[in-house]
Write a structure and sequence with these properties.
Layout: E1 2-5, E2 16-19, H1 38-51, E3 58-65, H2 69-80, E4 84-97, H3 103-109, H4 112-128, E5 131-136, H5 142-154, H6 166-177, E6 180-187, E7 190-200, E8 203-211, H7 220-235, E9 240-245, H8 249-254, E10 257-267, H9 272-281, H10 284-295
Parallel strand pairs: 2-3, 8-9
Antiparallel strand pairs: 1-2, 3-10, 4-9, 4-10, 5-6, 6-7, 7-8
């Protein structure tokens, strides 16, 4: 569920318990068994965190579903455990509820400006006879597909990956599990655009997209998107297409709905670094209250609350 960061040797940065998330995370949430009462379970977890020794200065959970009941329950549990809690926005998330539509029905429902531009650009590419689209779904030819993806990515506008082996490993794992939809658009036999979609449990998640800057005038990225969308709706028959994090305009063109990912920052008013974090994030008046709470005798340990 979580990872932790030790306090700074200079004493400025709080000892923080964080969500098990990183650069590549688009959604995070605690794993809870159904039927056990999530609110009560989270209350117990928060009490154990609060009573841990050495004490945590802060708990930082991010990429949570703001609309999920667990978000409110986490917030309440951390407050009940004596922490000062602040919620914060992480990113927008554009998605498409398919509602049983075919690709043709979906395409006809797009805004006329998006639909007309896509038709015009696709017609131009197809008439040229220069384009070919491959969609890789399994282990066959996976290494050549990874190589093509990496060539496109290296020639795109994207910054280099901070962990170069992560995406190839993810592609291989998804291929092994049957989740992979790796689309490669070729122009004159050369990889020009690439997209990684992950299809699982009725949802197609658009994880990575890139195109070679040399082919920008052909709108080869949009051309590939239409082929990937057609495969997801007509072959995989997914219930939802998810563009994951970000409010980029092109995502709004293809998707119809928006939700948000948020974070919860809980700070401990009974540690010095926790008080400094409160001063930084919440302000002077709340910091004063936190300091007054800190100098008082701490309450009884909540360790009596045991996780069953």
């Amino acid at each position: 569920m979580t990872r932790w960061r030790p306090a700074s040797a200079l004493g400025f940065f709080p000892r923080t318990l964080s969500s098990l998330s990183n650069f590549y995370t688009s959604l995070y949430g605690p794993l809870l068994l159904p039927g056990n009462g999530s609110a009560a379970t989270l209350q117990k977890v928060a009490c154990f965190i609060r009573a841990d020794s050495p004490a945590w200065d802060a708990v930082d959970l991010k990429w949570l579903d703001r609309q999920s009941p667990v978000f409110v329950e986490l917030e309440q549990a951390l407050r009940s455990a004596g922490m000062l809690v602040q919620t914060y926005f992480c990113a927008g998330n554009w998605y498409l509820p398919v509602r049983g539509r075919s690709y043709r029905q979906y395409f006809d429902d797009l805004r006329s400006s998006v639909r007309n531009i896509a038709k015009s650009k696709n017609r131009k590419i197809e008439r040229s006879g220069r384009a070919r689209v491959d969609i890789v779904t399994g282990a066959a030819h996976i290494e050549s597909a990874i190589e093509a993806y990496q060539r496109v990515y290296a020639s795109s506008w994207k910054v280099p990956e901070p962990y170069p082996q992560f995406i190839p490993g993810l592609i291989r794992t998804c291929a092994r599990e049957g989740w992979l939809r790796l689309g490669i658009a070729h122009i004159d036999g050369e990889p020009a655009a690439a997209q990684i979609w992950i299809v699982c449990n009725g949802t197609a998640s658009i994880y990575k997209i890139a195109y070679d800057k040399r082919f920008i005038d052909l709108s080869v990225g949009s051309y590939l998107t239409t082929h990937m969308m057609e495969y997801a709706l007509d072959v995989d028959k997914v219930n939802e297409v998810d563009y994951l994090t970000g409010d980029d305009k092109y995502k709004q063109d293809w998707m119809s709905n928006r939700r948000e990912r948020w974070g919860i920052l809980a700070m401990n008013p009974r540690t010095v670094r926790g008080g400094l974090a409160i001063a930084r994030h919440i302000g002077g008046r709340m910091a004063k209250r936190a300091f007054q709470s800190w100098i008082k005798k701490p309450p009884k340990s909540p360790m009596a609350a045991r996780i069953s």
